[in-house]
Write a structure and sequence with these properties.
Strand order of the largest sheet: 1-2-3-4-5
Oligomer: single chain
CATH superfamily: STAS domain
Structural class: alpha/beta
Number of helices: 3
CATH architecture: 2-Layer Sandwich
Helix content: 25-40%
Largest sheet: 5 strands, mixed
């Protein structure tokens, strides 16, 4: 991983549940940062706030599937909130809306 991450902002709030706020684009260049910051949090459920995500590609979808699987193995729950309609549609077209908890 390099120190020159593309334009994405990932802010972590340690609450119950933990909250990760993402702004910018989630793609093959940026999803590793989100995963790195999310997977190593202290044990608790996790909400990812995508209200300010402008773009998401298949690599991001795969990242969410991997994160969900990792958290599930530890008995934790992942919820993805704030998806804009075009981004939510990606989850629906791929059937991931049936496998992942997509909140409001």
């Amino acid at each position: 991983m390099t120190d020159n991450f593309p334009p994405v902002d990932v802010r972590v709030e340690l609450n119950h549940p933990h909250r990760v706020v993402v702004a910018g684009d989630l793609d093959m260049a940026t999803i590793p940062l989100l995963l790195e910051r999310s997977i190593n949090l202290p044990p608790d459920d996790l909400v990812i706030d995508c209200t300010r995500v402008e773009f998401m590609d298949a690599a991001a979808l795969n990242g969410f599937v991997a994160l969900n699987a990792a958290l599930s193995r530890r008995g934790q729950h992942l919820r993805i909130n704030g998806l804009r309609p075009p981004t939510r549609r990606l989850f629906e077209l791929t059937g991931l809306d049936q496998d992942l908890d997509l909140g409001p």
